[in-house]
Structures are given as C-alpha cells and as structure tokens.
C-alpha cells in the first residue's frame, strides 16, 4: 500500500464549505453594521436639525420666514421647511389666549429611512417686558 500525503476531495470540499459559510456570516454582519451606522447617523442628524430649529425659535423674540414676521396671533401657523436634506414642519400653537404661552412642535422627516422625529417645547413670550431680550439677541446662530 502506498501512503499518500495530502487531502482527499471530500476534505477539500468540506473545508471550502466551512470557509464560505464563515465568509457569508462575516459579510452579513459587516453589511448590517454599516446599515445601522448609516441609520443612526441619519437619526443623529435629524435630532440636531430639530434641536437647532427649536433653539433658533426659542432664542428669537419673533420668527421671520419668507420675509414675514410671526409672533402673537400671527404665529399660530404651520411652516414647512427643507433643511440639511430633511423635510419637516414647525407648528406654533398658542396655549393660553390671554398670555403669551406657545407650544412649539418641530417635526423632521427622513424619507430615506421612513423615520420621523418630533421635538416639542413650551415658550413664554413676555413681549416688551422681557428682561432677557438682550441675551436673546446676542446668541449666535
């Protein structure tokens, strides 16, 4: 009997099947992590967009959009926007008829991932009696 050193065809095929299975698992895991990273980056940018719009509205005494000024009764409008590649809208709703209390709702929509981020807050417009008016105007945007 002659002793051959080496692998049989079955052993080679089995090792290839094992290697390909491992490569498929690694590739799938890698692609899933890339997808989740892109999705979380998009969500982070949506949050930052909503926060920057909210901070802008809160820091301004009045809101200017399309050369129109909004505050008081005129501020109760819905404004649609496109910013940083996202669509969305800002709704400003007067909460108390006799006081300057407004609810601001900023909605940012990512159509690529079919996600929506909603940020809400309440502000109080003190009008001319605002002791922080100078501070509001000094905030850089």
Report on this structure.
With 141 residues, the chain is of the alpha+beta class. The protein has one domain (9-138). The chain is built from 2 helices and 6 strands. The strands form 2 sheets. Strands 3-4-5-6 form a 4-stranded antiparallel β-sheet, covered by helices on one side. The chain has a two-stranded antiparallel ribbon with strand order 1-2. Strand 3 (78-83) and strand 4 form a beta hairpin. It is rod-shaped and about 105 Å long. The protein starts with 8 loop residues before the first helix and ends with a helix.
- Rg for CA atoms: 28 Å
- Indicate the proportion of strand residues: 25-35%
Count of the domains: 1
The chain-level structural class is alpha+beta
Which ranges are low-confidence, i.e. pLDDT below 50, for 5 or more consecutive residues? 128-141
Tally of DSSP helical segments? 2
